[in-house]
Amino acid sequence: MNNIVDLNANNFQDIISNSANEKLVALVFWSNQIPECQEQNQIIDKIASQYGEHLLVAKLDCDKEQALASQLGQQVGLQALPSILLLKDGGPVDMVAGPQPKAQLYAAFEKHLPKAEDLLLEAAQKLLTEGELSQAYTKAKQAYDLNPDKSKVKLVLADICLNIQKVDDADALLSTVPMVDQDAYYNNLKAKIELAQEAKDSPEIMQLEQVIANDDSDFDAKVKLAVQYDQVGRKDEALAMLFTVLQKDLAFGDARKMYLDVIATLPDGDELAGKYRRKLYSILY
After folding, report:
1. 3-class secondary structure, 249
2. Rounded CA gap, 280 and 146, in Å?
3. What long-range pairs does 15-21 form, CB within 8 A, spacing at least 24?
4. Going by fewer Cβ within 10 Å, which terminus of the chain is more open, N or C?
5. Count of alpha carbons within 13 Å of 35, Cβ hemisphere only?
6. With the C-alpha atoms ordered 170, 174, 175, 177, is the resulting torsion angle positive or negative?
7. SS3 of 57, please?
């Protein structure tokens, strides 16, 4: 694991310098002769795996590195093994002395590490930049479920919604952002939403809607209208329109393929995708 290292006299200064760069450094004093140390190390390894680049765990084997352990122990007032010294911004911020239950260990680390929703949001932003929109939506939605009141979470989720043409969802999210948080990012998203809303009722869409209003059996017009709906992000209406065709004729043109293609453009876990898959199964079986 690349954020867990063995501490020694040669790498000590390099490791300490990490704490001055917004990274939490955990100096773990332990001994292989003490069973509680080994048990606690397993929990610490798990914590390290969850926080990646935000946490560096430096383990000091007090049996192998006796001189360094003695020197550091005197400086920090070490009284028991295992013990953990937490460092951030170039200095100590906490000391966890003696063996601790799992819950208390997690609590000690979480006081100085990013919250779960911040880690999810960070992952969502990276995936959005990489164009992995479905995964980005999943991460951002998880962050929103954890903290639906955080404006940064709403803005990033709204941005992703716009990219996957969930315009109404993006608009609903922005409507709840308080004025104090309506920054340049907010204004940019708001402008994009307004343009997307204007495109939702194009002349082509209105013309096809009129054709279908005059002749509800014109399946070709319905498929064309579904294509237009899909292009402007009206996914629910596109699927509903295609379903009316498939109910009457499962083999009509490319209606079934298009129906499945629209579902495939929806993010993982989207309720709309589940709803219309069930609808299709109801007429297939």
Report:
1. coil
2. 33
3. 15/56, 15/58, 16/87, 18/56, 19/87, 19/88, 19/89, 19/90, 19/91, 20/89, 20/90
4. C
5. 0
6. positive
7. strand
DSSP state, 28?
A: E
pTM listed for this prediction: 0.65
Question: Tens place of pLDDT for every residue, the chain, 285 residues?
Answer: 589 999 998 998 888 887 667 789 999 999 999 999 999 999 999 999 888 888 999 999 999 999 999 999 999 899 899 999 999 887 899 999 999 999 999 999 989 998 889 989 999 999 999 999 999 999 999 999 999 999 999 999 999 999 998 898 999 999 999 999 999 999 999 999 998 888 888 889 999 999 999 999 999 999 999 999 988 888 999 999 999 999 999 999 999 999 999 998 888 778 899 999 999 999 987
For 30, other C-beta atoms within 10 Å of its C-beta total 22
What is the residue whose two structure tokens read 């000091």? 60
3-state secondary structure of 25: strand
